[in-house]
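Have a close read of this protein, sequence plus C-alpha cells, and explain what the C-alpha cells say about the fold. Thanks in advance:
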Amino acid sequence: MSTGTATATSAASTTTLSPITSTTIVVTTTSTMSTSTATATSSASTTALSPTTSTTIVTTTTGTMSTSSAAETSSASTNTLSVVTSTAILMTTTDTMSTSTAGLPPYLDIQPGTIVGVWNTFAGDNNTLAIAGTTGAGTYFTDQTPANLIDHSLGTRYSSRGSPGFGNNSLAGLNTGFYATVAQCQPTLEGFRLGNSYPYSDREPLTVTVEGTNCDDLVNCVNWSLLYNGSTGLYIQMNNLAYGDYQSIFNTISYKSYRFLITSKRSISVFVSYGEIQLFGYSTQTSTSQNETSSNTSLVIQSGSVEALWNTFAGGMSYIATENSSGAGTYYIGQGPTNLFDNKTTSKYTSRGNSSSGSNAIAGLNTGFHVTIARCQPTLSQFRFATGDTGAERDPIMITVEGTNCLTLINCTSWTLLYNDTSGLENVLDRSTYGSYKSIPSPQSFASYRFLVTSKRNATNSIFVSYSEVELYGY
C-alpha cells in the first residue's frame, strides 16, 4: 500500500465505487509499504475510490517501510484514494523506518540556547512563551523541554500541554511549538523531519505551520512569513522510535530564525509530543553533516583579531600584553599569540604575566588571548592545545574559556564562562605535540572567545607559560 498519490496498474480487474456518504475500508496486507509518491505496480486487483464525504480507513501491515522516494512494486493490492473531504485514518504497523538522510539537502544546525517553547501562538502572530511545569496551561513537562528536540536522541521528547493544562482532550498541545535560530549564515530552509513520540503515539503532531523571520527580538516579533502549512511527516504510526517522512518546503528566501506550530495531532491526549527536529537547506556556510548530528569544522580566526592578555580573570576586563624581552605584562619577542594559529608546532606563544623575571609560581598565570571568529553566528564546541617545543614545566594545565558578542573586546566585561577545566595537555610530556580534544559542555554562539591560563605544569619552576598551537572547532 502506498500513502502517496501514485497511479496503479493491474493485470486483474478494476473496480470503481461511485460517490458515497460514508465508507469503511479494511485492508490487510503483507506487502512492502512506501511513503513515496512514485508509481506502484501490482499483480493483483486495483481499487479506485471516487470523491467521498467521509472515509475511515483501517490498515494493518507487517511489512518493511522505507522513507525512500524511489518507486515501489508490490505483489499485493494497490489502492488509490482521491479527493476525500474528511478522513479519519488509523494505521497500525510493526514496520521499521529508515533514518537515512541520503539525497536530502545539507543539515542546518540550530544554535544552542535559541530554541524556545511557545503556546497559544498562531501563524502570523507574536509568541506566547511556554514554561516548564508539572501542570497547568502554557507549560511543557518539566524534563521534556524544547532543548530535547536538538539533543540528537530519539529517546527524549518535547511535550507541551497548551491551553487545557491537564487531562486527556482534543485540544491539549495544539497551537504549541517552538522557535529557534540557525547557526549558519543566511540559512534557507528547504525541508525538515520530526522524530516520533513512541510509545506515546497518540500525542504525535500530524500537521504544522512553519514560518521564517529575521527579527532580532523573537519574543515580540510579528514579522513571520508563512513558508509551510501541512503534514509533519508523522502520519504513519510506528511501533518503534523513528523519524517521520522528510517534508519539503518550497522556499528560496533566507531567514535566520524559524517557528514551528502544531495545528493537529493524532488522537485525544494530554500533551503533544515529538522527539527531534532536523532542519535541511543551504546557506553561505552550509554544514557538511547529513545526519542528526551537528558538524564540527575548523573555525577560522578573523585576521588581526588575536590579542595577548595578562593579569586577566574570568568575567573581568581584558588587559593587553606587549612584546618585550623582559618585564611584567609582556610576551617574549617573536613568540606572540598569532603563533598559536600558524599551523606550526615549532613556533609558540610565551607569556610572562605578572612576573618580571626568573622562575616563580606566578609566571605566566592569568595570561592568554582573545580572538574573533571569521564567520557569523559561530559556536565553539571543541578545541585542543599543543605543547611548546621546549620546557614541559611551562605547559598550561588548567584554563578558562569564555564567549562574548562585545564589539570592543578590550573594555568588555560581558563574558560568559563556557569552560573551566584542563587544557588537554596534563598527560602530554612530548614537545610540539597536540593534547586531547576538549569539549565545551554547553556550547553557545558568540562572535569572540577568550582563553585564560589558570595553572601550569610546574607551579614553582618556570619563567613563562608557553604553548605552540590552539585549534578551535565548531559550527
